[in-house]
Specification:
The protein has 133 residues and is mainly alpha-helical. The chain has helices at 2-26, 30-56, 59-89; strands at 107-108, 113-114. It has a two-stranded antiparallel sheet. β1 (107-108) and β2 (113-114) form a beta hairpin.
Amino acid sequence: MTDTVIAVISTFGALFVLLAGLGIVRMPDLYLRISVTTKAATLGIGLIMFAAGIYFNESSITTRVLAIIFFLFLTAPVGAHLIGRSSYFTGIQMWKKSKMDDLKGKYDAKTHILKSDVKEREKPTEKPDRPEK
């Protein structure tokens, strides 16, 4: 029974890693490649590591495997975000058929300041007068 569970989990992990590899080849620009590989490869490697933890069935190995999975899920999306953001700010073009560029016009290349659409709420300068009792 345990061998079957390990085989299923590791097979799904291998399929996700395969999809990540295909995504690198098939996606038209850097930003889509980063998105595909981060999601699929992180999940695939996490599943393979989880299957390895089940296979060895020791508390020390299982603890290490869970720590690796935790840090993988924590660091891979952050790293991909930083790579994508720095790529955008250095001028790497998006795919020509991309429909939306959320950062267009919001980044000042000279000061490296990113502006948002949210307007600052007006802060009340004075407290409203209350009638004294």
